[in-house]
Amino acid sequence: MLYIHIPFCKSYCTYCSFFRTTSLDLKEKYVDTLCREIDLRHDYLGKTSLDTIYFGGGTPSLLTADELSKIFSAIGKYFTITDEAEITIECNPDDVDARFVADLKCFPINRISVGIQSFDDEQLRRLNRRHNRRQAVDCVCQLQDNGFDNISVDIIYSLPNQTLISLNADIDQLLRLGVQHISAYSLTYERGTKLFDMWQRGKVEAISDEDSKQLFDTLCYRLQNNGFEHYEISNFALPHRRAVHNSGYWAGAKYLGIGAAAHSFNGSSRQWNPSDIDKYCLQIDRRRTFDEREMLTPTDRYNEFIFLSLRTAAGIDTDRLASLFGSDARDYCMANAHKYIDAKLLKITGNHLSLTHDGIFVSDGIMSSLMR
Fold first, then answer.
1. Full DSSP string of 166-222
2. Which segments of the chain does DSSP mark as H helices, in order?
3. In the chain, fewer beta carbons within 10 Å around the N or the C end?
4. How do the pLDDT tens digits run along the chain, 372 residues long?
5. Please, are residues 203 and 193 in contact by the beta-carbon 8 Å criterion?
6. Where does the chain hold its CATH 3.80.30.20 domain(s)?
7. Which residues, listed in sequence order, are joined to residue 293 by a DSSP beta bridge?
8. Which of 126, 123, 120, 125 is nearest to 203 (CA)?
9. Burial class (CB in 10 A: 0-12, 13-18, 19+), 170
10. CATH number for the domain running over 2-250
11. Is 69 exposed, middle or buried (CB count within 10 Å of its CB: 0-12, 13-18, 19+)?
């Protein structure tokens, strides 16, 4: 698994807390540095084949064809992309035009993740998104008309002033578009974002937990009734259209992250690059290894296994839990799970412990209780 971080944005969304920059003049230098980092760290995974590549951001759709070509050439020097590989690029709707789509078709990109967030123009303005409803719809249709048949759409619910009527309108539009995958995230007010500041100053009002739960219930019910599998807390897919790359994260697979602020995992430790483009470029120029490194203790690995497994519909494989961490770890987990099973927030199916629908909405507390 290879992740490539493209941190450039034309403007900042009010809710976003990811590392990003509007200094587009640094993009050419940054891409050259990405390629040198691939040269430097290509042996990190201990293998030469790739089953997934993911261009995330930021706004990867700001990359030019020449810049994408440089990155794929650097990848191709050291890796073989398997025939069934999933290769995803995140896109902003307003970046998708005839030229962009034609450029994409020159590369082995076969999955597009479109950051729509809402089809309500007022909400889009509040979030400081660059596109409007019409552009969002046209973007997906243009991709479909040009043969892209594995499209994911990001949406946000629990927006300020959002009602069941407005959420259902978004869902109606999603279903009319006929996309294969939907990632749906509850709006969070992250410290350091403009939205958090607006909320603190009373400029926007967060909806209640009860209203948020009603929106979540409606979203799940309607998508599942239209053939989508709710396979992870925030993700829904038509049959055989789960996100392979993200599923690898939840399964604890090894991955290499390239770019500023990108994280990597080799099975026993996690490493990451600085969240600063100048520092990142200097680090790679000096052929230094990762900026930070964290060795995972057995307790860290147990906690990650619990957290990542419970995010998925399959849940925790208790036999695998015992195999990896010992029968005492399984006993500890199950002893702390009983009260949630009794409350119908967790369920046991064979040897799998998983969240119920009602458990998903309070999953943070449940996960914490099962951790050490």
1. HHHHHHHHHHHHT-SEEEEEE----TTSHHHHHHHTTSS-PPPHHHHHHHHHHHHHH
2. 27-41, 65-78, 98-104, 121-126, 133-145, 164-177, 194-200, 209-225, 244-250, 277-285, 298-310, 318-325, 327-342, 357-361, 363-370
3. C
4. 999 999 999 999 999 988 899 999 999 999 999 999 999 999 999 999 999 999 999 999 999 999 999 999 999 999 999 999 999 999 999 999 999 999 999 999 999 999 999 999 999 999 999 999 999 999 999 999 999 999 999 999 999 999 999 999 999 999 999 999 999 999 999 999 999 999 999 999 999 999 999 999 999 999 999 999 999 999 999 999 999 999 999 999 999 999 999 999 999 999 999 999 999 999 999 998 777 889 999 999 999 999 999 999 999 999 999 999 999 999 999 999 999 999 999 999 999 999 999 999 999 999 999 999
5. no
6. 2-250
7. 271
8. 126
9. buried
10. 3.80.30.20
11. middle
Q: At 299, which amino acid appears?
A: T
What residue has token string 């500023």? Answer: 260
What are the structure tokens assigned to 30, written together?
A: 């940054």
- Owner of token pair 């490539």: 4
